[in-house]
Amino acid sequence: PRELEPQIDKALKSIEDIMCSGFGDTKNPLLVSARSGARQSMPGM
Predict the structure, then answer these.
(1) Which residues pair with 29 in a beta bridge?
(2) What is the C-alpha end-to-end distance of the chain, expressed in Å?
(3) Measured in whole angstroms, how far is the alpha carbon of residue 3 from the centre of its chain?
(4) Which of 10, 29, 31, 40 is the most buried (most CB within 10 A)?
(5) C-alpha dihedral, 6 to 45 to 24 to 29, nearest 10°
(6) How far is CA 27 from CA 5, 13, 14, 22, 39, in A?
């Protein structure tokens, strides 16, 4: 949805501020992990 991207940007900025690091920053990167929301186990995803 169109309104999702600004919400993600705002949440990511908040995390960057709290962690004092930046998403895409080569000197002080913000490390994140994502997982699928699949109903069944998907090894390797």
Answers:
(1) 22
(2) 24
(3) 16
(4) 29
(5) 120
(6) 25, 17, 19, 9, 37
Domain of 10 in residue numbering reads as: 1-25
CA distances from 36 to 10, 22, 29, 44 (A): 21, 23, 22, 11
Q: Work out how many domains the chain is built from and give that number.
A: 1
Q: What is the pLDDT of residue 16?
A: 96
Instruction: Answer whether residue 42 is part of any domain.
Output: no
Q: Which pLDDT tens digit goes with each residue over 2-14?
A: 899 999 999 999 9
Q: What is the distance between the alpha carbons of residues 21 and 13, in angstroms, rounded to a whole number? A: 10
Q: Can you tell me which residue has the tokens 């920053």?
A: 25
